[in-house]
Amino acid sequence: MNFGIGPTGSPAQVAALRQQLSVNPADRIARHNLAVELRKCGMHEEALAQIERAWNEGLKLAETATMRGHLLADAGRFEAALDAYREAVRVKPELIEPHSTMASLLPQLGRGDEALDSLREALLRAPQTGALWVEALSIARGHQAWDALLDLAAQAEARFGTDTMISAFVANALTALGRDDEALARIDAALVQEPTYPPAHTIRAHILLRKGDPAAAAGAAETAARLLPKDQSSWALLGIAWRLLDDEREHWLCDYDNLVMPIDLGLDPRLLGVLEQRHQLVAHPADQSLRGGTQTRGNLFEADDPVIGGLARATKAAIEQRLAGLRPDPAHPFLGRLTSQVSFPTSWSVRLASSGYHISHIHPAGWLSSAYYVSLPAEVAAGQGQGELAFGVPDAALGLDLAPRRVVKPQEGHLVLFPSYLWHGTTAFASSAARVTVAFDSLPMDNNGQPV
After folding, report:
1. If 0-12 CB within 10 Å is exposed, 13-18 middle and 19+ buried, where does residue 99 land?
2. From the centroid of its chain, how far is CA 235?
3. Where does 255-295 have alpha helices with state H?
4. What is the pLDDT of residues 335-377, one digit of tens each?
5. Which pTM does this prediction carry?
6. Per-residue pLDDT tens digits for 398-425
7. Which residue of 103, 107, 156, 366 is most buried, as measured by CB atoms within 10 A?
8. Three-state DSSP class for 278?
9. Cα-atom radius of gyration of the chain, to the nearest Å?
């Protein structure tokens, strides 16, 4: 059973596909599938060779072009990867994966203004594909391209009619542009049509906090949390609303003293070099919290590398030991989901340069989030307020001047765990050295290896 640590491919499946190809070397589908499995097993060079052979022997499927793109990007051949993704969407414009991958990759190459280009072209070629519209709207929102989001939403409504989900995207853009009254009117109208749509209540809570009505915001956030209790966004807003109302439930929910959990994990001296090799891009992702740095691609803990594998196993053991000491609370969004084991659906490394920082944010799809300190500039290690991890300061978009509830001084080899709904960010630092961390989101798992 795999709990999200190490390569996820099946050696048995690889062996079976090799056998199949030994009998019939012309089976291009089997060769494509072998490349997929090899990549999952961390065998990227052979995977690329197999997918190139399948492609060159005539398997010109969009899915094959997409896998070529992934493997070329894995090898750091980003321009060739972009060409492969473009070929994929030329063949099959409705295929979402190459669009989303390009939208993520291009900003990290310093070409964020191109992020929506392939989707805009695909929408002209396949305008009835609803999933394409949802992807384009989601990317525009994630990249904070508010004018583009409003334009895309207007086009979507012209084609599909008024829709609660589209209205939620519009409200996101309007409030980000400071048009809170319009945003609130739009989301209220949407909720009349679909009163149980959780994101609409979450957005409504955000708008009401901006408008200075924490009591109404708390009501909206409570509704969203009741409808979709595992989504961290509503709990994050609820914590802020309760804080503004001086409601004791903020301390029950956030409990910074006990739920922000530093652990001395130790540090493999080889880790920094391994991670530096994986920071191949030039800019931060457009939809992530870091500013002035880079982030690794893919799920780091699935890398076929003994050093990274050792970190993943040590992290898993430390988390499970620490969580075993917490007292369950069925009503609590974090303590109510405690189990004896965890998985890592996402993991990555961040390398911040001088003046780099993380804006205050949360992890909406997480449960337990983290920061593990691999390398710190002397200026940060000295503990004079640079590069520190601050909890409890909400998203600047809310316009609230709130001080941190807890500040953690980074230390190399230390892991800091916390519920994913806690607002967290870092202060900037000035140094010629980089600040290198590993982070992940973790989910609780039952005895059958399923998320709880």
Report:
1. buried
2. 18
3. 256-259, 271-278
4. 999 999 999 999 999 999 999 999 999 999 999 999 999 999 9
5. 0.94
6. 999 999 999 999 999 999 999 999 999 9
7. 103
8. helix
9. 23
Distance between CA 308 and CA 302 in Å, rounded? 8
CA 366 to mean position of chain CA atoms: 9
Structure tokens at 259: 């739920």
**Can you tell me the distance from the alpha carbon of 155 to that of 161, in angstroms, rounded to the nearest whole number?**
10
57's CB contacts (< 8 A; 6+ apart) are 26, 28, 31
Structure tokens at 378: 């002397």
Cβ neighbour number for residue 415 with a 10 Å cutoff: 25
The label of the residue with tokens 């022997």 reads 57
Sequence-ordered list of residues with C-beta below 8 angstroms from that of 313, at least 6 positions apart, any chain: 5
- Closest among 384, 331, 333, 377 to 356, alpha carbons compared: 377
Residue at token pair 């499995």? 37
Q: Which residue do the tokens 């909206």 mark? A: 220
Please state, in angstroms and rounded to a whole number, the distance separating the CA atoms of residues 368 and 7: 22
C-alpha 203/C-alpha 188 separation (Å) is 10
pLDDT digits (tens, 9 = 90+) for 89-112: 999 999 999 999 999 999 999 999
443 forms bridges with which residues in the sheet?
A: 343
3-state helix, strand, coil in the chain (%, to 5): 50, 15, 35
**What span, in angstroms and rounded, lies between the C-alpha atoms of 27 and 400?**
61
Cα–Cα nearest to 187, from 159, 214, 224: 224
Residues 150, 127 contacting (CB under 8 angstroms): no
Amino acid type, 343: S
C-alpha of 396 from chain center: 19
225, HSE (Cβ side, Cα atoms, 13 Å): 21
pLDDT score recorded for residue 403: 97
Q: In 3D, which of 126, 104, 128, 129 has the Cα closest to residue 116?
A: 104
Please report which residue ranges of 194-346 form alpha helices under DSSP H. 198-210, 214-227, 232-244, 249-254, 256-259, 271-278, 306-323
> Residue 4: pLDDT above 80?
no
CA 179 vs CA 24, 170, 174, 400: distances in Å:
63, 11, 5, 17
* Least confident span in 6-20, 222-236, 342-356, 389-403: 6-20
